[in-house]
């Protein structure tokens, strides 16, 4: 027996004769394998199924979340709090850690199930020959060497080499991305490097048979099939962290260094002063709670969840919250064509009939639409063409747009409906007397009918096929008025018309007819012999049309500085024409040329390439990888299985809602309306959410810096025994005061010029030098105001009982935080410009909470605050107002400095590093 090991995956079966393939798989055309041979091969190769990708357990994910640096710092604070009997502080901090871990684990548990989805796509039953008997078996029991029967409507159960075929066509869009069904035949291909989409004597797992019948010998099963290789690529692609995750991790490290350096300094100073261990630890945890942004993970999660809800309302569903922000950083979109930029519905766009041009409108398989012509021309009689459209095809199209059969023939049926002809009724009225079925070997179809022509019944032959093939069998052509002239008189015009349609990326079909009165018996006996001496009727140009919103979406993306490229399995000429219609940009390349380029050459050529045709799943994966290595944040859109690995590799994989389950599981976002324009809306929302996160971090970091400085100065100069505020005061500020300014930031509307700026540089962290200086400056401002208010407040300061100075510091810090949130919600724009009423309503709540914290008894006992007089409250308000005044003045100076008389507002904003952040 000839071995059929896994190396078969790399065998060019399409370059071998069918009998040689049967021999290589040690099988038999007539009897197939024996049951014993099949069992032995199944033990060797395994079942014909896609292996599942094991996922991490919930506990493993939770443990990984707990190891996050931010959470580890909070755990340390909670432990020390218990040691020094600060139990309320320990409980609150521990609850925060649990909340962070639960939220993070919940998101991670939505991990990809792409390979599982691939496994579910297996065909349940197949017709296979075993021991000379045709049996119906489960697809999972197939092995290399099995002889399988296929017919229209079947899903191919494994990869195989065709042994016989009759008018076979398969729909391979799920694998190659090509819209039109692919003709198949058994002829051996000479070359050994034929692209996947051109392997016309092979059929592939999980593609569908749209026409004809065939017998195949199974060459690969399970993970060795083309689908299995996609699954392997999918498993090999490790999920990457989003830009925001990477930036927050970087920021957390910076904060950790600042926090623990400050804690160490305070502890050292306490020891030098001879303070007790309890006091020193209290100082340490007070400093730690002040310096660690305890609410940062929770608040960022809340803001991302808010963004996710906005996206869902816009019909874009994200699986992980951090992907919301990734959208905003998108700098390149690699879009599949079929079903993404196009409607995945073959449609006739142009008609060349009796020597004249006509335009066909209408979308997809909707039967409404018009056929328009040049003014002044006579209304044509489309009867002969309508016969060909209806009778020379087998597809059916319902009034709701559902099709059965070949999509290209469905487009012809829809064109007939636009002419005013009902295909089912026409077929019942004029049944076929004889036919020559379509076959890829001769590339035409002919049917014979008794038809009504010019008021009488005639026996007519109708032919449909490729223009070159049909013209080669014609001797005449019709001109307006159905006047026949010798073909040579108009051959040049017909050739030019075919070329014009092809250059537009249209699939061209030609129609011809022949009158055969009195030859019914001869035609029925040998119909092929009558496919000659035809009269040319016309040509139609068919295309998978662009989605109406796709052109505007591409234009918006370009204005936003986002490169859009189309990557498809279609031929390069078709892809290039569609790319030009979309306005993608210059440069088109085919799969073989792409594969011949080195990574360095491709990287250098990418700025000049915007259309990629005849690509493989590996090509899509490679393109995403090269673009990412070049610094781009890549979004990849797609709806077919062949897109899945690239979607998982991309920074933001965007699946279409009507696409395969595999693709939806591999993607990080699903567009429920299949609308490419929705992706641009999602990017706009993503940018807005990132702007809000930056505003929040600016606000949060300014507050943290003010607290760090306050505690450091209090410790160094022994103010209030080194404790400016109690730990619970700080936690109260984090949870009950800053929450509301954050809400104001979240609800602030997006700036109108958001999509007129280039994408932010993902390599520039949130904690860049310019931003860090701004945070520190705003923090110093808040610290200075709070310290001044505390030092100038009447009364003694003590950490063992409530005091007016500490309460004043608490109130000024609270009111200052509230007002800071109002003005910091926008940068460099003023925070005092409309809309502002809604923000003031929200900010009134923490003002009331601050009053309660100072004036209500049980909160006084918990926080160690004391009541203030009316004059003291006014003083606190006066101190607090200094903060928004200074911040607004600084932003005004910055706006003036960056303003340029000849520079558009959007450009000026884009130059501003603070706006970019």
Summarize this structure briefly.
It contains 36 helices and 27 strands. The protein is α+β, with helices and mostly antiparallel strands.
Could you characterize what this model shows?
Residues 30-52 are annotated as: Disordered. It is found in: Cell membrane. Belongs to the cation transport ATPase (P-type) (TC 3.A.3) family. Type IIA subfamily. Pfam families: Cation_ATPase, Cation_ATPase_C, Cation_ATPase_N, E1-E2_ATPase, Hydrolase_3. The chain has 36 helices and 27 strands. The protein has 917 residues and is an alpha+beta fold. The strands form 4 sheets. Strands 10, 11, 12, 15, 16, 17, 18, 19, 20 and 21 form a 10-stranded mixed sheet that branches.
Subunit organisation of the chains? single chain
Main sheet: strands, sense, barrel: 10 strands, mixed
Give the distance, in angstroms, between the N- and C-terminal Cα atoms.
67 Å
CA radius of gyration: 36 Å
Question: Helix coverage percent of residues?
Answer: 40-55%
Q: What's the total helix number? A: 36
- The low-pLDDT segments are 1-9, 110-123, 902-917
What sort of overall outline do the alpha carbons produce when their principal axes are compared?
elongated
Query: Please, what is the average pLDDT?
Result: 83
- What class do helices, strands and sheet pairing give? alpha+beta
* Number of E strands: 27
Beta-strand residue percentage? 15-25%
Pfam families: Cation_ATPase, Cation_ATPase_C, Cation_ATPase_N, E1-E2_ATPase, Hydrolase_3
Catalytic activity: ATP + H2O = ADP + phosphate + H(+)
Region (Disordered): 30-52
Subcellular location: Cell membrane
């Amino acid at each position: 027996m000839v071995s059929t090991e896994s190396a078969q995956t790399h065998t060019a079966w399409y370059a071998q004769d069918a009998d040689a393939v049967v021999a290589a798989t040690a099988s038999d055309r007539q009897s197939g394998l024996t049951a014993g041979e099949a069992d032995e091969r199944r033990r060797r190769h395994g079942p014909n199924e896609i292996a599942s990708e094991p996922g991490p357990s919930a506990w493993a994910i939770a443990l990984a979340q707990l190891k996050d640096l931010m959470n580890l710092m909070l755990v340390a604070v909670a432990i020390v709090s218990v040691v020094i009997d600060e139990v309320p502080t320990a409980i609150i901090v521990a609850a925060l850690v649990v909340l962070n871990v639960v939220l993070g684990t919940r998101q991670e548990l939505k991990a990809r199930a792409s390979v599982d989805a691939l496994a579910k796509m297996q065909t349940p039953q197949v017709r296979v020959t075993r021991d000379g008997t045709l049996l119906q078996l489960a697809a999972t029991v197939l092995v290399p060497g099995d002889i399988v029967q296929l017919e229209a409507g079947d899903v191919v159960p494994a990869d195989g080499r065709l042994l016989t075929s009759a008018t076979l066509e398969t729909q391979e869009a799920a694998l190659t991305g090509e819209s039109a069904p692919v003709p198949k035949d058994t002829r051996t291909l000479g070359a050994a490097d034929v692209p996947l989409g051109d392997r016309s004597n092979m059929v592939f797992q999980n593609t569908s048979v749209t026409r004809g019948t065939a017998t195949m010998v199974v060459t690969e099963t399970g993970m060795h099939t083309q689908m299995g290789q996609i699954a392997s690529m999918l498993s090999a692609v490790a999920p990457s962290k989003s830009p925001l995750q990477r930036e927050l991790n970087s920021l957390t490290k910076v904060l950790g260094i600042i926090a623990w350096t400050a804690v160490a300094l305070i502890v050292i100073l306490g020891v030098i002063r001879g303070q007790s261990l309890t006091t020193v630890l209290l100082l340490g945890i007070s400093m730690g709670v002040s310096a660690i942004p305890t609410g940062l993970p929770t608040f960022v999660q809340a803001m991302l969840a808010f963004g996710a809800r906005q996206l869902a309302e816009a019909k874009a569903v994200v699986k992980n919250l951090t992907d919301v922000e990734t959208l905003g950083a998108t700098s390149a979109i690699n879009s599949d064509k079929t079903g993404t930029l196009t409607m995945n519905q073959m449609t006739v766009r142009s008609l060349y009939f009796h020597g004249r041009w006509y335009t066909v409108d209408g979308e997809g398989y909707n039967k409404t639409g018009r056929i328009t012509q040049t003014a002044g021309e006579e209304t044509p009689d489309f009867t002969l063409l309508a016969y060909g459209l209806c009778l020379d095809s087998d597809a059916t199209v319902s009034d709701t747009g559902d099709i059965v059969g070949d999509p290209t023939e469905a487009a012809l049926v829809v064109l007939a409906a636009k002419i005013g002809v009902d295909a089912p009724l026409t077929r019942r009225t004029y049944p076929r007397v004889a036919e020559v079925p379509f076959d890829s070997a001769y590339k035409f179809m002919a049917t014979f009918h008794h038809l009504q022509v010019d008021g009488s019944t005639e026996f007519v032959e109708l032919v449909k096929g490729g223009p070159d093939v049909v013209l080669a069998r014609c001797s005449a052509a019709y001109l307006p008025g159905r006047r026949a002239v010798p073909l040579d008189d108009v051959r040049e015009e017909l050739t030019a018309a075919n070329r014009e349609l092809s250059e537009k990326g249209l699939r061209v079909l030609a129609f011809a007819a022949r009158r055969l009165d009195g030859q019914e018996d001869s035609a029925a006996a040998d119909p092929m012999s009558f496919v000659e001496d035809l009269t040319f009727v016309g040509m139609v140009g068919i295309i998978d049309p662009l989605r109406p919103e796709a052109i505007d979406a591409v234009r918006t993306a370009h204005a936003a500085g986002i490169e859009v490229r189309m990557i498809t399995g279609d031929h390069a000429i078709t892809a290039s024409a569609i790319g030009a219609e979309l306005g993608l940009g210059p440069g088109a390349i085919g799969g073989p040329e792409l594969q011949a380029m080195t990574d360095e050459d491709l990287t250098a050529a990418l700025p000049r390439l915007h259309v990629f045709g005849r690509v493989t799943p590996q090509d899509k994966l490679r393109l995403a990888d090269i673009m990412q290595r070049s610094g781009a944040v890549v979004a990849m859109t797609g709806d077919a299985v062949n897109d899945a690995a690239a979607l998982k590799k991309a920074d933001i994989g965007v699946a279409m809602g009507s696409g395969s389950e595999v693709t939806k599981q591999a993607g990080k976002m699903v567009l429920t309306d299949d609308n490419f324009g929705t992706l641009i809306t999602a990017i706009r929302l993503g940018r807005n959410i990132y702007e809000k996160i930056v505003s929040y971090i600016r606000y949060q970091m300014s507050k943290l810096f003010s607290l760090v400085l306050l505690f450091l100065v209090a410790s160094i100069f022994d103010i209030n025994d080194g404790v400016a505020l109690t730990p619970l005061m700080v936690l109260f500020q984090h949870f009950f005061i800053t929450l509301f300014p954050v809400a104001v930031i979240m609800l602030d509307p997006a700036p109108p010029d958001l999509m007129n700026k280039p994408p932010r540089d993902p390599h520039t962290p949130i904690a860049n030098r310019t931003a860090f200086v701004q945070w520190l400056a705003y923090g110093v401002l808040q610290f200075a105001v709070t310290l001044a208010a505390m030092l100038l407040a009447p009364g003694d300061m003590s950490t063992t009982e409530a005091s007016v100075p500490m309460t004043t510091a608490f109130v000024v810090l609270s009111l200052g935080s509230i007002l800071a949130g109002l003005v910091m919600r926008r940068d460099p724009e003023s925070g005092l410009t409309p809309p502002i009423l809604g923000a003031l309503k929200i900010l009134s709540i923490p003002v009331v909470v601050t009053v309660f914290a100072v004036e209500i008894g049980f909160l006084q006992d918990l926080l160690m605050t004391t009541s203030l007089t009316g004059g003291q409250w006014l003083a606190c308000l006066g101190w607090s107002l200094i903060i928004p005044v200074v911040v607004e003045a600084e932003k005004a100076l910055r706006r003036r400095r960056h303003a340029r008389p000849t520079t558009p507002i959007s450009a000026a904003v884009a130059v501003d590093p603070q706006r970019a952040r």
